[in-house]
Amino acid sequence: MIAITKPKGRELRVLLVNPPHKYKGQALGFNVYFPLSLLYVAAPIKELCKVEIFDCLVEDFEATEADGFVTYGTPIDKIRKAITKFQPDICGISIPFSSQSENGLRIAKICREIDPNICVVLGGPHPSVRYEKLLENNQCDYCVVGEGEITFKEFVEKFSTGGNLEKIEGIAYEKDGKVSCVKRTPVDNLDELPMPAYDLLNIRTYLEDPNLYKSRSAIPTKSISVITSRGCPFNCVFCSIKLHMGKKFRFHSPENVLRHLKYCTEELGINNFHFEDDNISFNPGRFEKILDLIIEEKLDIQWDTPNGIRADSLNYRIVEKIKKSGCAGVQLAIESGNQNVLDTIVKKDTVLGKVLEIVEYCH
């Protein structure tokens, strides 16, 4: 952990970085996506500092192959130049998956090589779960544990005034060989959060990118991800969402979701949406109300759910509205066709008979 160095004579500068991605040659194809997590984190701090987003998946993009792996994104030398040019006081680096942590940690190291006074903060699912190891190995100065909108805003506020960063809930740090973190209670009402800071991006750059959601969706063209809820109360063995977003299902109101969709269609010119919720239909009444509003407002959109929908949360009426509201395809999260495997291994807590019923409705 570095000593806090307040910027002198200039506005606080915060750089948020989405690192390059690295895949084994036979892995699922590379996709460009809107960096939603950074957009959400940037929104509350726009009035507190000069903040920029450096998305390595679109800036000076290259694909390089070495040792059977392909790295997609900004070359390291150009990342170094961008950081040097911006001269950040704080560099926030997003690491969404453990398998993609290598490039994020490499950028953290570059920050320290450029200027040891740059405060390196890691956030996202990987640091939220592995913060102890990251801090023990001195790979960053702080980690944001869990969702970051409120935590990182407080961090920026206290950093700019020389306040005590160790007292911020949701901030993990190392001191005298001991890693500490007081976990923050997740935001209960997501409507209290500001809309993602779309104004920090060149939207056209993403919409014209040939890799935009190209292998994740049947409607990749001029599309964007939207998250209407967070958390999941289930215990599927393969899923880590409960570790960094919690088990409580929290959500935006249907009216808020509609406003967000209309903003994207009217202001950004986007009509294709990917609902990235981990369990969008957990509350069937809320989900049905969202569908009703899309239909009532006659929104000319298409949408899908790349992460799937729980079949046992649906019924014939909702399936009809799914189709009428512009759904381009339903991904039912079945996981296994063997009930015993679902019950004892996957722990999906769903009944295959219900799944088959919904499959028939969809046909």
TrEMBL record:
Radical SAM core domain span: 218-363
Listed Pfam families: B12-binding, Radical_SAM
Cofactor or coenzyme needed: [4Fe-4S] cluster
Keywords: Iron, Iron-sulfur, Metal-binding, S-adenosyl-L-methionine, Transferase
Coiled coil location: none
SUPFAM superfamilies listed in its UniProt record: Cobalamin (vitamin B12)-binding domain, Radical SAM enzymes
B12-binding domain sequence ranges: 20-166
CDD domains according to UniProt: Radical_SAM, radical_SAM_B12_BD
GO molecular function, a single term: metal ion binding
Gene3D superfamilies: Cobalamin-binding domain, tm_1862 like domain
InterPro entries recorded: BchE-like, Cobalamin-bd, Cobalamin-bd_sf, Methyltransferase_Class_B, rSAM, rSAM_horseshoe, rSAM_sf
Protein name: Uncharacterized protein
Biological source species: marine metagenome
